[in-house]
Amino acid sequence: MKKKLALIFGITGQDGSYLAKFLLNKNYIVHGVIRRSSSFNTSRIEDIYVDPHYSKNFFLHYGDLTDTLSINQIIKKLKPDEIYNLAAQSHVAVSFQLPEYTANVDAIGTLRILESILRNDLQKKTKFYQAGTSEMFGASKPPQNELTPFYPRSPYAVSKLFSHWITINYREAYDLFACNGILFNHESPVRGNTFVTQKIIKSLCRIKKGSNEKLFLGNIYAKRDWGHAEDYCKAMWLMLQQKNPRDFVIATGIQNTVKFFIEIVSKKLNIDIIWKGKGLKEKGYYNNKVIIAIDKKYFRPTEVENLLGDYNNAKKYLKWQPRHSLESLIDDMISSELNT
After folding, report:
1. Which ranges in 222-301 belong to alpha helices (H)?
2. Structural element, H or E, at residue 72
3. Nearby residues of 222 by Cβ (< 8 Å), 6 or more positions away
4. pTM score, two decimals?
5. What are the start-end ranges of the H helices in 8-67?
6. Measured between alpha carbons, how far is 324 from 310 in angstroms, rounded to an integer?
7. Are strands 177-183 and 248-250 parallel, antiparallel or unpaired?
8. DSSP 8-state symbol, 325
9. Which segments within 25-99 are labelled E, that is strand?
10. Which of 12, 18, 82, 135 is catalytic?
11. Digitized pLDDT (tens) for each residue of the chain, 340 residues in all
12. Residue 230 catalytic?
């Protein structure tokens, strides 16, 4: 039986690295697109190179979602069975500072891929997955599912919403097998250091080891639905194995505040945090020292307060549900951090 060929944009990111390993274990041939950089940016996938079982089925190409020519050339050459667009400027706060760049990558980048599928007459062969985000719901009332109205609150979310609707439009206009995964927050040991969960884990682990640092955070009362990236990447693959394309919310259906996340981490590290003050003056103390403080610069211009996913359709049609709890996710992240 001929092996399937998958092309992953954003393969060096958290999701890309997990998805690549998942597909290789499914006996796929996996190609990934990476941006040219003066420093190596492939740390999350280095183990794939080392393993001889993986390396013969794993290939990388230079490309960029802002470069139409590179996208078209790669797709034309490979004629992939499946394309996963996981590439993005994915930091919400940064999107306020770089709105035009965010839109170019996260919105128009998706259009470039869809156009390349059409221009190379691959609409009958290639299945396309677009990585959406719960940030598209923004201020919408939870719980949020596939029918919940969108109310994006950042340039990142607005750009992703364009990608969501252009994927639907091309699916309906050109009969493409194209679908959106509306994924709620998902983390892992390889989450980027600037994302709040990893920031909390790393800082509290260093404090446990004796560091005198202070952790500065923004809105610790924001409510989120956190899952494990490993679980969510399986859901991406399942979407492209269906008979007909459709969009799915992927979530855990369990919601907690950032502050609760901090308290779980601190408890597991035997750091007894005492909270004092309110609002911007709220602080977390450990051994009579301030280790956590609120800094208004970490608040977004428009906040997203309340995200909670309803994944009943994924459970019904994909037969998918999360394997990891929030506690097991945190255990995984802490173990990785303490053993590095």
Report:
1. 229-239, 258-268
2. helix 68-78
3. 257, 258, 303, 304, 305, 306
4. 0.95
5. 14-25, 46-50, 52-55
6. 17
7. parallel
8. -
9. 29-34, 58-62, 82-85
10. 135
11. 789 999 999 999 999 999 999 999 999 999 999 987 645 667 778 777 666 566 789 999 999 999 999 999 999 999 999 999 999 998 999 999 999 999 999 999 999 999 999 999 999 999 999 999 999 999 999 999 999 999 999 999 999 999 999 999 999 999 999 999 999 999 999 999 989 999 999 999 999 999 999 999 999 999 999 999 999 999 999 999 999 999 999 999 999 999 999 999 999 999 999 999 999 999 999 999 999 999 999 999 999 999 999 999 999 999 999 999 999 999 999 999 998 7
12. no
- How far are the Cα atoms of 15, 75, 103, 306, 335 from residue 8, in angstroms, in the given order? 10, 11, 20, 31, 28
- In the chain, the domains with their CATH numbers are 5-189+227-253+306-324 (3.40.50.720)
C-alpha to C-alpha distance for 217 and 137, rounded to whole angstroms: 23
DSSP code, position 309: B
- Coil, strand, or helix at residue 331? helix
Q: Give the active site residue among 12, 110, 133, 148.
A: 133
Place of tokens 């999350």: 44
Catalytic residue among 156, 170, 232, 311: 156
- Quick one: which H or E segment has residue 332? helix 326-338
107's CB contacts (< 8 A; 6+ apart) are 158, 159, 160, 162, 163, 166
Known catalytic membership, residue 172: no
151 is catalytic: no
Burial 323-339 (b: 16+ CB within 10 A, else e): ebebeebbebbbeebee
Find where tokens 């006996």 sit.
Answer: 27
What's the CA gap between 166 and 133, in Å, rounded?
15
d(CA 196, CA 200) in angstroms, rounded, equals 6
